[in-house]
Design a protein that fits this description.
It contains four helices and eleven strands, in the order H-E-E-H-E-H-E-E-E-E-E-E-H-E-E. The protein is α+β, with helices and mostly antiparallel strands. It has a seven-stranded antiparallel beta sheet with strand order 1-2-11-3-4-9-10. Strands 7-6-5-8 form a four-stranded antiparallel beta sheet, with no helix packed on it. A hairpin with a 2-residue loop joins strand 6 and strand 7. 29% of the residues are buried.
């Protein structure tokens, strides 16, 4: 009886250690994720499986322009009154207890995330005009967009938004979806703080025919 109980306890301890290690890897190093939105068409499609690198979040490293990132969805997805002196997305929800924080940030229970491409970095002057994007006065070359795509301030909700001429604050990025007419992004809710960025897409592993890096 004692040997059975001891063996059971050993197995439980092994399982607990495995779960803890898996959670640590998921939070600090990387994790698989599934595309559930259409905002990154044609680069990414729904049900694509991606590997998300979270080491940048762990080391608080700023992503590079052109990187595809995931981040916590802002509390307000369409800002009606733009403050150009502080064009940062609004986040109102903050878990209070340790259990709530663990559930929200580690298990990501009840947490909604967006996937977009980094367009503007801290200090950049981002302008959207005449259907194009300008960074510090120079037109941004966007080979990843489909031919004929126009970048304006009309987005997925069909309403015009106002973050069209801003300076990206420190420790923030300006991000947009490649499917510009079908994406609600920084044009609508402002810049994303570094601490809200969850990870950077490293590669796609499914469908297997498209296995490899994503640009």
């Amino acid at each position: 009886m004692k040997s059975v109980l001891r063996e059971t306890m050993e197995w439980l301890i092994c399982i607990l250690i495995a779960v803890v290690l898996a959670l640590l890897v998921r939070y600090y190093i990387g994790t698989p994720t599934i595309v559930q939105q259409t905002s990154m068409h044609p680069t990414l499609k729904e049900n694509d499986r991606l590997w998300l690198n979270r080491w940048g979040r762990t080391t608080k490293k700023m992503p590079e322009r052109g990187d595809i990132i995931t981040f916590e969805a802002p509390s307000v997805t369409r800002v009606t009154k733009v403050d150009k002196n502080n064009p940062v997305a609004i986040y109102n929800y903050e878990p209070q207890t340790l259990l709530e924080k663990f559930s929200y940030y580690v298990l990501e229970s009840g947490k909604k995330s967006y996937i977009k491409r980094v367009i503007g970095l801290p200090g950049d002057h981002v302008e959207i005009k005449d259907g194009l994007v300008y960074i510090n006065g120079e037109q941004l070359e966007e080979d990843y967009l489909q031919p004929g795509v126009v970048t304006d301030m009309l987005q997925a909700n069909g309403k015009e938004t106002g973050f069209s001429d801003i300076i990206v604050p420190q420790n923030c990025v300006f991000a947009m979806g490649d499917n510009r007419p079908g994406s609600t992004d920084s044009r609508a809710f402002g810049c994303i703080p570094l601490e809200k960025i969850e990870g950077t897409v490293s590669f796609r592993f499914w469908p297997f025919s498209k296995f490899g890096g994503v640009e």
